[in-house]
Amino acid sequence: MAGAIASRMSFSSLKRKQPKTFTVRIVTMDAEMEFNCEMKWKGKDLFDLVCRTLGLRETWFFGLQYTIKDTVAWLKMDKKVLDHDVSKEEPVTFHFLAKFYPENAEEELVQEITQHLFFLQVKKQILDEKIYCPPEASVLLASYAVQAKYGDYDPSVHKRGFLAQEELLPKRVINLYQMTPEMWEERITAWYAEHRGRARDEAEMEYLKIAQDLEMYGVNYFAIRNKKGTELLLGVDALGLHIYDPENRLTPKISFPWNEIRNISYSDKEFTIKPLDKKIDVFKFNSSKLRVNKLILQLCIGNHDLFMRRRKADSLEVQQMKAQAREEKARKQMERQRLAREKQMREEAERTRDELERRLLQMKEEATMANEALMRSEETADLLAEKAQITEEEAKLLAQKAAEAEQEMQRIKATAIRTEEEKRLMEQKVLEAEVLALKMAEESERRAKEADQLKQDLQEAREAERRAKQKLLEITTKPTYPPMNPIPAPLPPDITSFNLIGDSLSFDFKDTDMKRLSMEIEKEKVEYMEKSKHLQEQLNELKTEIEALKLKERETALDILHNENSDRSGTSSKHNTIKKPSLLACPHLSPPNLSSWANLETCLRLTTSFLNICLNCLPLHSKPPLSSPCRAPSPEWPSLKSSSR
């Protein structure tokens, strides 16, 4: 009985001692946590619990944020959690976020968890366009974000389309250009491949170093009005207070650095900023809500404290943290180097293994080919043995045939000697026949030329005979003229036996003299024709050369007439109008009619014809009386000076 009463008392005492709790949900940038908090806990108790859970020691940058009627508020450290204007429904939700931003992330952020939380928060603000980022900087930041998440770029793993589900660029940037997601991925991957070798914390720090240079980084904006009622924006950041135009959040109209502000205060909705320089007017503005003024003052106090702390020596705790961070960083660096060496050795080992496997496979293929070649060689050897036996038998037959062939060869050689002698004699006869045929061909050609010449001479002779007969017919039918005493004309000096003196004409020719005269006349005729032809060619050549240099406008009337005469081809000579005189006095002949002595060729031809006619007449006058010579009108020989060329 007594034991039962004691047990009931102890149970009731335990029940009275158990504190009341409530559930709190903490949302970080990459996780959610729930805690059971006592009803009496203050904001600092909950904040310390969250920081211990995360392993965070740089607590001064962070806070627990909640929302009241569309207004952001931060949990106060010295006030009970449930005394805040939070929802009473469990779980009570708070967001663990960075409340204050560092001036230089690389120098101030010591712990890796701190860097990681800042990286995630700044990245989300850029993607949500709460921080303006240019398109080119957005691509670079996206490449560092990919490096932090995926590590080094590997083409075999990170194939085309591996970023299709990632949110890396602000929608404003994507809509600004007519580019497909594949094109954006290609440009991000190009930058991503250049970040090879960077660890996650290094890539995140590079991301923060670029982001902290953006104009809207770390700035909290609040809508305010000045005394005139003009709407403005108040910006609070790690460097001071800034006044912005509502349409321009990038460039402040006026700034108040923390070291130039003497005092900040508010009364109801009016907020006052007193500069350190008393000559500068106090800046006053009004906010929309009292709660906003409290939030502004809270942010100003926190940023100002951090601003002053940065300009002092680090506290012992911060020094220990930095020393531990350096040691941890050095340890991680060594670990990364070791892993890099192991990775390199593993890659080399894999390459060596692949090479050995390749060589082994190659050697196996070579061995297989060698075995096949050996088998083929054995088969070939057997075939060669059979062929050798057959060849040996054939060799014996060939030796027998060779002996027979040797005998036949001796017989053929003897026959060949005789055949060679006969062949030599035949070749000599053939050569003599060829020479004789050549001579006969030359003789035939010469005889053909002589026959042609004889035909030509015969034709000329027949023509001369025809002309002589014509002249004889004319003489026989011509009436007799009374004798005249013509003036004797000079004859060519070569004709020594042909004299026409006064009214007498004597002939004293011999056959040899006539032949000599004919030959000389023919020779002179040929020489003159050659000279005339050569001279005409030279004249034509000269005319052709100077024709191109002639100036038509300077031609005289005579030049024109000469050219016209030349164009008529010279068919008529200026001597064509000379009277045709008689050349010989003969009872039966009258001299041939000479049309002109325009050139020596015509003269010689007429003289030859004339002499031929006279020679034909010589038998008729073979015995004339010396006192009565054959009389005929003496020819009137025109002077050759006018026609000689």
TrEMBL record:
Pfam short name (any one): FERM_N
Gene Ontology CC: one annotated term: microvillus
GO molecular function, one term: actin binding
Gene3D superfamilies referenced in this protein's UniProt entry, alphabetically: 1.20.5.450, 1.20.80.10, 6.10.360.10, Phosphatidylinositol 3-kinase Catalytic Subunit, Chain A, domain 1 (3.10.20.90), Pleckstrin-homology domain (PH domain)/Phosphotyrosine-binding domain (PTB) (2.30.29.30)
Keywords per UniProt: Cell membrane, Cell projection, Coiled coil, Cytoplasm, Cytoskeleton, Membrane, Nucleus, Phosphoprotein, Ubl conjugation
Xref: InterPro entries: Band_41_domain (IPR019749), ERM (IPR011174), ERM_C_dom (IPR011259), ERM_FERM_C (IPR041789), ERM_helical (IPR046810), Ez/rad/moesin-like (IPR000798), FERM/acyl-CoA-bd_prot_sf (IPR014352), FERM_2 (IPR035963)
Compartment(s): Cell membrane; Cell projection, Microvillus; Cytoplasm, Cytoskeleton; Nucleus
Keyword Membrane found: yes
Membrane topology: Peripheral membrane protein
Coiled-coil features, chain-numbered ranges: 313-478, 518-559
PANTHER family: MERLIN/MOESIN/EZRIN/RADIXIN (PTHR23281)
Record protein name field: Merlin
Naturally occurring in which organism (per UniProt): Equus caballus
